[in-house]
Amino acid sequence: MTSRGMHQDLKAAQRLFLLYAPRLGQEAWLDESLDRYRHAIGQTGEMMYVLGVAAACGQCALKGAGSCCFLGVENNYGTVLLLINIILGYPPPEIGEIKGKCLFVGKHGCKLLARHYYCQRFLCDDLKAALGEAAGQRLTETVAQELVVGWEMEQAISQWLRQVKE
């Protein structure tokens, strides 16, 4: 079940966006960071598309067990990562589209652009077997690059928020 804490984090992210979006929009470092993050996300997305991971995961989430998109996995998302999604133009939904699944998964896959570590790194056993070791390793390396850029983005925004609140 989706926790009350995740909904509080989502409300907090929405409040932060309303309060600070104009000031954040004036920060040159943010544009550069967002460009780097979008690029890294795009690299991962392209790799997942080419390897068939995106299609397989989308079908599994919609019709299968959805082992990574289980109800409650959205509780891994904190305020800053939710805020990043809002900044990127992917506001997290408050109501799930698919009953019994992650709040953020829809009929066409995840509705978020910036995703949590678990969501990016998890590969079910069937998908691991289908990919094979070499393709699995390439995907892991691509995802790792995205996660580093995303972590840097989260840290930069967290630090900025601490400074403006002082």
Verbal overview:
The chain has 166 residues and is an all-alpha fold. It has one domain. The chain is built from 6 helices and 2 strands. The protein has a two-stranded antiparallel sheet with strand order 1-2. A hairpin with a 2-residue loop joins strand 1 and strand 2. The longest helix has 41 residues. The relative contact order is 0.17.
In short:
With 166 residues, this protein is mostly helical. The chain is built from six helices and two strands, in the order H-H-H-H-E-E-H-H.
Describe the secondary structure blueprint for this structure:
Layout: H1 4-24, H2 28-50, H3 53-63, H4 79-87, E1 105-106, E2 109-110, H5 117-121, H6 125-165
Antiparallel strand pairs: 1-2
Structural class: mainly alpha
What would the principal axes of the Cα set say about the shape?
globular
Write out the strand line-up for the largest beta sheet, numbering strands in chain order.
1-2
Question: What would the average pLDDT be, to the nearest integer?
Answer: 91
Specify the number of helices: 6
Task: Provide the domain count.
Answer: 1
Report Rg.
16 Å
The assembly state of the depicted protein chains is: single chain
The biggest sheet amounts to:
2 strands, antiparallel
**E-strand count:** 2
* Beta-strand content estimate: under 5%
Kindly state the percentage of residues in helix: 55-70%
End-to-end Cα distance, whole Å, is 36 Å
Order of helices and strands: HHHHEEHH
Low-confidence stretches: none
Short descriptors:
6 helices; 66% helix; two-stranded antiparallel ribbon; 166 residues; mainly alpha
